[in-house]
Design goal:
heterodimer; A: 149 residues; mainly alpha; 7 helices; B: 185 residues; 76% helix; 0% strand
Chain lengths: 149, 185
Amino acid sequence: MTTPSPSNIHASLKKTARTFLQALPVIVGMLLLTSLALSLFSPEQAARYFGRNDWVDALLATAVGSIAAGPPLASYLLGGELRAGGVSLVAVTALVVSWVTVGVVQLPAEALFLGRRFALVRNLVSFVFTLLVALLTVQTLHWIGVALP
Amino acid sequence: MNRSGARAGQGGWWFLAAVAALYAAAAALAPGLALRALEHASQALGRMLPVLALVFALLFAFDVALTPQRIMQTLDRPRGARGWMVALAAGILSAGPIYAWYPLLAELRAKGMRVSTAAVFLYARAIKLPLLPLLVAYFGIAYSVVLSICLAAFALLSGMLMDRLDRAGAFAADSSLPKQGRSKP
C-alpha cells in the first residue's frame, strides 16, 4: 500500500470535519428527539407496543427504517436509546439494519444508475432479509446463552 | 461543497431547529417533561462523546487509507464466488454516502460487473467498521459480532438470490441496465 501524501491527508481531514459538521445536528437532534419520546412514553408503554410479537416488531421497525434518511450513526444512537427505553431488541435490530440496507428515499437514484427493476427487487430482498437478520441475531444470542443487551 | 451537498448539510440543521421548536412547545405545555428529556439527552451525549470521537478518528483513518477508486479497482477484476467475497470486503470498507457509489457501480456494470456483485456490495455496506465502537458501546461485543456475521452472510445470500433472478431474466426488462453487464459466465 502506498503512503498517503500530505495533500491526501489534508483532504481526508477536511472531508471528515465536513462529515462531522453535517452529522452533529443530526446526532444532537436525534438524541433530543429520542429523549423527548422516551420521557413521554415510559418503558412499560414502549414494551406494550414493541415486545409482544417478534415478527410484528421487526415488520414495524423495518418499515420505519426503510423510509428513514440520515447517517447510519444516527440509527445506532436512536436504536441504542430506544433499547434503553424498553423497545425490543428485534425491533431495534430491524431498525438499524433497514436504515442502511433499504432505501426508499434513495430508490429513484438507485433506479436511475442501476436500473428500475434492479433497485426495486434489491430493496424488496433487503426488506425481507432485514426481518430475517433481526430475528436470527436475537435468536442466536439466545442460543449461545448471551444475556440480551 | 456543491449546491446539493450544501443543501444536504443544511438539512441536519433544519432537523435540529424543528426538534428545538418541539422542545419549546413541550416546555410551554409541560416544563417538567421537557427538562427531564433535556437531562436525558445531555447524559446520553456525554456518555457517547468519547465513542463518537473514536468513530470520527476511524472515519478519518479509513478515508486516508481507502479511496473509492482503490475500492472500485478491486471490484473490477474477479468474478463468481471470489467476486462476491471481494464485493463483500469492498462493501464493508466503503464509506461515505450511498449516492457517491451509484455512478461508480453503474460504470462497473457497464464494464461487465454482474448484478449479484453490485447487490453484495450494497448490502455489505450495512457493516460499518468505523461505527463498531458505537455499536459495541450500546449493545455489547457479542451482539455486534453476531449481527456483523449475520449481515455478511445475508449480503452473500442477496448476491446468490439476485444472481438466480438475473439468470431467470428478472432484469431483462430493465432497459437502463447495460447489456454487457448481465449474466457473464
